[in-house]
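S.,

Sequence below, as promised.
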Amino acid sequence: QVASGFNCLEFISNRESAANGVSKYIHDRTQGPAASISCTPALVYRNYFLPHGGPDGTEHRGQLPQQTSLLADLPIPTDNGCVRPTADALQEMEERGLFEDLEAAFGQARVGLHTDVQVTSGLKAATIEVCTDPEQMVNQVFVSAANLAHVRPALAGDPRIEGLARLLLR
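The prediction came back faster than expected:
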C-alpha cells in the first residue's frame, strides 16, 4: 500500500506536478515517495506513459498534459492529486445523495493498482540500497486521503466538508 495522491503520484504540495519529473522522489523519505522510487520503472511509467481518459473523454498518455484522478466518477475536483472542494462540487454531491449513502459514494472512488512491478531499490535505515535481483516483483496499491487544510475559509464551516472527509477516509 502506497500513500499517494489521487493521481497515483506523490507530490510534496499541490504546486508540484508530473511535469517536475520523478528525480525529486529520491530526496523524500516519506512512505509514498520512498515506496514509489523503490520501483522506479513503474513510477516512470505512471508519470510519463500511463494511458488514461481525461474528464472530457479524450485519451491521454502520461500525466504531463492531463493527470488521472481516482475520483473521476465523483464531482470532487483535484489539483495535482490533491482534493480541492468547491461549493458547486459539494452541492452536486448533496444533490446526488452521496453524503447520505457513503457506501455507494465510496464505490465510485478508485484505488490505483500497479501489478508485477520490478523492485529496483529500497531504504534500509537511512541508506538507499539497490536491489540486485531483477526478478524481485511487487504489486503496489495507491491510496489517498484528503488533506483539507487548504479548504477555502468560506467552506471550512460547511458541514458537507465533514461528509467529504468521511467519504474519503472510508
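The helical segments are 31-37, 40-48, 87-95, 102-106, 153-156, 159-168.

Coffee later?
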